[in-house]
Amino acid sequence: MGATRPGLDRRGRLALYVSGFSTLAYGLLLILTLILPLYYVTGVLEGLVAFSYYRVTYYGTLIAVDELDRSSYMAIPLIISAVYMAVSGVNLLTALMEKEEYYTPLRLCFTGGLVAVVSSSVFMGVYTYYFVKAVSSLEVNLNQATSAGILILGGSKLNPLPYTWLLLNPMLQLATGLIALLSSAVALYLHHTPQQAEAA
Questions:
Q1: CATH class of the domain comprising 10-199
Q2: In the chain, what are the domain boundaries?
Q3: CA 68 from centre of chain
């Protein structure tokens, strides 16, 4: 079984490269989304919050947030799937550039594309139902209105980092996963088409 076989035309080679790059891109995108800090908190609460971990203090004392703990646990299988996709994309691109057998890496990329569609849906579900709720709870106002006036106890402010909007863009997550899946499916189809024509 050869690498870029003579029967595979320009479209087939293009589909292979798109499959490799999009699979790698989705894997890296998801890894960055899961491990990079997405928000920082200032005020009486201070710290950084990522999808897979957090460190928040209240006047210097570490605090625990149940929903963020759940998000951290749920991030583990997502990180595993993201690493799988990144490695699959690298393997396919390496096979193509070194003119080695590419069919097995291509099948792994196709499997990764299926995983991407599922994992992007799971990620957005966990993000919506756990992460957003937990992060929102970190923005508090402790000031109290009393008969003597306003008792100023302070508060905390939640701030997104400059890249947060991009990493948490659901359309980007879903589109990258779909491109990885569809390009792998097209490449597999074009891989088998010459063989079927030769057999006929």
A1: mainly alpha
A2: 10-199
A3: 17
